[in-house]
User: Fold this.
Amino acid sequence: MPFSALLSTLPAAALAAALAAALAIAPTSALAQARPTAGGTLNFVVTPEPPVLINLATSAVNVLKVSSKVTEGLLSYDFKLNPQAQLATSWEISADGKRYTFHLRPNVKWHDGKPFTSADVAFSLNLLRRLHPRGKSTFANLAAVRTPSPLTAVLELTQPAPYLIKAFAGSESPIVPAHIYANGNPLANPNNRAPIGTGPFKFVQWVRGSHIEYVRNPDYWDKPKPYLDKIVVKLIPDAAGRAIAFENGSVDLGGDTPVPLGDLARLKDNPKLGIETNGYQFSAGPARIEFNLDHPQLAKLPVRQAIAHAINRDVIKSAVFYGYAEAISSPILPGSPYHLAAPSPYPFDVKRANALLDQAGLAKGADGTRFALVLDPLPIGDAPTRTANYVKSALARIGIAVTIRAQDLPAYLKRVYTDRDFAFVVNGMSNLFDPTVGVQRLYWSQGFRRGVPFTNASHYSNAEVDRLFDQAAVEPDPARRIAQFARIQQIVAAELPDINTVGPKYITLYNRRVHDHSTTPNGLDGNFAGVWLSR
Assistant:
């Protein structure tokens, strides 16, 4: 008789005894293995090497992945973006939407032993509003942060902010120690390179060009977490080298498609490796070509229109992203209630592109060239450079000679956002949890912030777009917000401060011994407190 049938014939007491005996003799069953086990070192690959280890003044994806292991936020979120407790245990929003009251977790310590209090919250939010690429728009309505008690922080707003409750993850709004940042320039603070936080892991060392090391915080507030003894962040600049590291087991986990897409078919067949596409709800966004509207040639709309007509999004989808993307023309991804599913006003048409340049008086020379441009791809992953190579060949067909410039991330950020010494770039920008936070910074005139990465690098300014963004930021009616964002998308699609090309499908690659790495909408940008390794 099968064991399951036998159990059905037993009385309740005997059934309980039989089940206990079965579990006692099978400690390595699937049930036992599903429970987290403590210990072990996670080898986590991040590329390129982050310029800093805390996301106080940057939203670069490589920084987010390391910052969150040490520095936490007030809240975390489930996959429906419902807020969950983290440094705040509970919260209330006033009926008029102008007051947020956070009740903070007691007995939390910074890694240097100092107590975490509401003063740290007030200091951090005010600093983020000033320094973070999205802080000026995220906290645009924040008038003050009151601290009526050490464990109570009250945010007073000038107007409602319907998106704000979704903005308190550590990967978006990190809470930093006020006592560390109290004096001097926060951008030059040593904590940016050797961070002290409240998180599950403590910073140990950063060996430039090699690795970053973190160890378990034994005093973490969410016991028995964290389960890992150590995290070693490996810095492997070569994409093929990262693929080999996954295959030989020297790397366990990596995100944002850490290997060449051409290698994925082979890696999928490796029984030790798994692929995950969840965990990018916060960070997903379009791949785009962004113009410097202060450039003498690209300031001319017919030139940008010609470039738009010369770009075939389907080629970028298939040749650059191997099909792991969706062709789009909007800065807001499909799947968002705010996405405008309208075709580009500038479809692929090489004949039309050449005609526009002829009409603009930019005739071809004897060598077939009208003028030359330098293109700067974002040096994160291989997709921007691969896209740049396609753009170079596409624009050659309309007489624009393109030179692709290679540089490391700090040089790119300085060139584009501080020196503004560029013509156009290939990059990608996260939509995040709401267009007011993820999209507004790119097209809002106040989003032009020299020296602040991942903001309005095009120097685009349109009074109607500004007005619509300002309205949407405080509009409580979802239908009106949809209409406001739809109109924004129509205007920017016509005026072309950028060309949105595809919505990439990002991939996390992992060794199957790694568990619970993508359990929130910010995936590997989470704190890894619940990550554990099979033995």
Q: What stands out?
A: Residues 192-280+507-533 form a domain with the D-Maltodextrin-Binding Protein; domain 2 fold (CATH 3.40.190.10). The chain has three domains: 71-183, 192-280+507-533, 287-504. The mean pLDDT is 92. The first helix runs from residue 3 to 8.
